[in-house]
């Protein structure tokens, strides 16, 4: 059983939902990424999404674009990201790590080499934004063979056909993009999310995490009421941006703890109803 599947099963047995924070590797500099990852775990993260910086992050809003720019100024490469994961894994054998990024760095390395090196580093999942499921069957097969989950995005505009394609090649969980647009943009329509999640869960047969537009404890709690996971990224990057470097990890952990506590209050409320 993969670490991702095990995590979701354990949380479900506890009546809790997964908290999945995102940071960009190498932001604000590579030496701070490992302390930030550890801070995310201390703050209550169940799974970490680690962004691989890329020069043209087309699905990301200005906040995560800035994070990629800062990381690239320090020369953060895919191999360096894998080295960071390897170091994290040496001290944490439990927390799943999902790499999130774009196809170009993977293809430059070679998909076979990437699958092998990601496995060796301890990567648990890969979400490639510009790899739609119908175009990456071979890639998905390679990383599945390495014990890594290929994770895909679904959006409010996704069709029944796309649901089927994702169900056929994906594993781990679904990342449901709750807004039309880029990361960090727009207004979160919680009612629409609540309508969509049961359909997606039934069609794809995997846990569903919701991201884009979640910025505080209240929106996280409301998403956790209907989804299997809450994904939060841009707001964490903003916390890093406004923090003095030496305080960034502690501030991120404190911010995330507020999100975790709000989500866990939901589980306590459900238990009290019983």
Protein architecture, described:
- With 274 residues, the chain is of the alpha/beta class.
- The chain has a single domain, classed as TIM Barrel (Alpha-Beta Barrel), CATH 3.20.20.70.
- Helices cover 53% and strands 14% of the residues.
- The protein is built from twelve helices and nine strands.
- The chain has helices at residues 3-14, 30-42, 62-73, 78-91, 103-109, 111-121, 137-145, 160-169, 190-204, 217-224, 234-242, 248-273, and strands at residues 18-24, 48-51, 97-101, 125-128, 149-150, 152-154, 174-177, 208-211, 229-232.
- The longest helix has 26 residues, at 248-273.
- The protein starts with a helix and ends with a helix.
Which descriptors apply to this entry?
alpha/beta, 53% helix, nine-stranded parallel sheet
Brief overview:
This protein is an alpha/beta fold.
Topology:
Elements: H1 3-14, E1 18-24, H2 30-42, E2 48-51, H3 62-73, H4 78-91, E3 97-101, H5 103-109, H6 111-121, E4 125-128, H7 137-145, E5 149-150, E6 152-154, H8 160-169, E7 174-177, H9 190-204, E8 208-211, H10 217-224, E9 229-232, H11 234-242, H12 248-273
Helix pairs in contact: 2-4, 2-12, 4-6, 5-6, 10-12, 11-12
Identify the strand order in the major beta sheet: 5-4-3-2-1-9-8-7-6
Shape: globular
Low-pLDDT segments: 181-186
Quote the average pLDDT: 92
- Please count the beta strands (DSSP E, at least 2 residues each): 9
Amino- and carboxy-terminal Cα gap? 31 Å
- Radius of gyration, taken over Cα atoms and rounded to an integer in Å: 17 Å
Beta-strand share of residues: 5-15%
CATH architecture: Alpha-Beta Barrel
Overall tally of structural domains: 1
Regarding quaternary structure, what we see is single chain
Count of alpha/pi helices: 12
